[in-house]
Every structure is written in C-alpha cells, then in structure tokens.
Amino acid sequence: SPEPSPRAPSTSVPPSRHCWHRGISREPGSRWTEPGCQSCTCQGGRVLCDTVSCSVPCSHPLPAPAGGCCPTCTGCLHEGVARAEGDVFSPSDGNCTVCVCLAGNVSCLSPECPPGSCPSPSHADCCSCNPEKCNFRGRTYAHGARFSLDGDDCTTCVCQGGEVECSFTPCPMLDCPQHQRHLGPGQCCSTCRDPPAPAGCFLDDNGVEFPVGQIWSPGDPCELCICQADGSVSCQRTDCVETCPYPIRIPGQCCPDCSAGCTYMGRIFSNNETFPSALDPCLSCICLVR
C-alpha cells in the first residue's frame, strides 16, 4: 500500500491577546482615552499610552468641554468672553468696530473715515481723530510737528489741527546780576559772563584795600596776613620757640629778643652788664646772654 505523504508545517498566526488595564478587558487593537488626556491602545496584550495631540484649525477656539481634551472651534473665545457660532459683537475698545465669530475665527471690520479735523466731543462719531496737516510758507507739516522759521532759530512753531502757532524759544533763568549778562551774535538767550578778576582784597571793617600779594599784620605782631590772587585773605600766626629768663620785648616785634640783653624790673641791661639787686642792695647781678 502507498505510504502517506508528510504534512506541511502549520503557518497560522496565533490569536491576538486581550489587554487588562485598570480592571477592564480591552479588545486587541482597540483605542480609548484615559483621564489626563492620555490616548491608549491594546497591542499584543500590552497597553501603550501617549498624550493626546490636538490640532486646532481656528484662531479663537473655546476651551475643551467637560470631559474633553482638545479645544473646540464651534464657538469663539475673544478677550476672555465666550461667543457662540455666528455671534456678531463689538469689542470693548473698538469704537464702531464690528466683529463676527465663524468656525472659531473672529473677523473684525472698522469703518473707513476720511481725513479731516477732529469732531467735537458732543458729536457721536465712529471715525477716529485724523487731524489736518498744516500748509505753512510752502511746506506741509504733520499734526504735532515742531519746527523753526527759516533763518530764525529763536522762534519755535507747532502744527495744531491745520493751524500753526509760533512762539519765542524759552530761555533758562539766570542767577547772575544784569550787568554780567551777555547776548552773543546768533544766540537766542543771554548767558552769564564770568565776573572780573579781583584787583585786591577789600576789608569791610575799615575800608582798606590791599593789592594782591600784600603782607600785613592786622594788629597782633604775631599774626601775618596776605592778599590772595582770588581776592581772599589768608592769615597765619607765628609761634615763638626761643625762650630766656629775662627776655627783652621790643614794641611791634612778635617774639622777645634774648640776644640783645636782659630785662630786669622794667630796665634793660646789656650783655655782661652788672647791676645791684632790687631785693638786696648788697647783692650784685650780671646780665649773661646764653
């Protein structure tokens, strides 16, 4: 009898496995969303999760609804206010601007206004203020522009709503007397001249004026003063260092003289001169200059 032929090995794919996740059985290949906007899928018995990626094709989407992860374009969020689809509104500071919400996008239109002077506050006007320009001496200036007249830098002009107003350039306040102020050629404002250099030192107490460099004594022979170049007076005292028991004081001289002789009981004796003592006539004194 013929022998049976060998069978070919089986090539069938093993069945996919289910996934158990948080106590729930998930079908193979299934996809679901977990809290925290995690997108999960069951693959080969394993659960793979990733953060939900949102594609928002509009400019002003509404926040994600309760339980959702991605913003929605079935309305608009404009300046913090939720607008329904097709809603027509005016922004808070848009004057007469009109906006509309369409598929999460906000489109706004403003009225076109011709140039002209600003309307009076009493008129309700949607147009913004477009002040007129100024035509002055063959030139055109924008509103608010400041300029000087030709050849006159001392005059400043300004364009105000089509009208030109000119005024003299303000000058700073000067803190010098009138006779020291000077207006130079081509200048708009006066400046202070430097005061003339002092010719000497003037003493207010007695009205005496000393020339620069003059040295004098103001009354005390031990004090000398000098007149400085800036008109001030500088004084300095002299300290006497030479001492002797019976010095000779010369009128008008600061320090006593110990080399000329001796002063004794109101009398002056020369060096090596002898004289009787005023306390005891039997005693003889001598002047010795050392």
Molecular structure report:
- Strand 3 (31-34) and strand 4 (38-43) form a beta hairpin.
- Among the domains are: 19-51, Complement Module, domain 1; 60-111, no CATH class; 134-166; 200-237, Ribbon (Complement Module, domain 1); 245-289, no CATH class.
- It has strands at 19-21, 24-26, 31-34, 38-43, 46-51, 75-78, 81-84, 88-89, 98-102, 105-109, 134-136, 139-141, 146-149, 152-160, 163-168, 181-182, 191-192, 200-202, 209-211, 215-216, 223-227, 233-237, 261-264, 267-270, 274-276, 284-286.
- A three-stranded antiparallel beta sheet has the order 3-4-5, with no helix packed on it. Strands 8-9-10 form a three-stranded antiparallel beta sheet, with no helix packed on it.
- By secondary structure, the chain is mostly beta strands.
- InterPro entries: vWF_C/EGF_Fibrillin (IPR052080), VWF_dom (IPR001007).
Task: Map the helices and strands.
Blueprint: E1 19-21, E2 24-26, E3 31-34, E4 38-43, E5 46-51, E6 75-78, E7 81-84, E8 88-89, E9 98-102, E10 105-109, E11 134-136, E12 139-141, E13 146-149, E14 152-160, E15 163-168, E16 181-182, E17 191-192, E18 200-202, E19 209-211, E20 215-216, E21 223-227, E22 233-237, E23 261-264, E24 267-270, E25 274-276, E26 284-286
Antiparallel strand pairs: 1-2, 3-4, 4-5, 6-7, 8-9, 9-10, 11-12, 13-14, 14-15, 16-17, 18-19, 20-21, 21-22, 23-24, 25-26
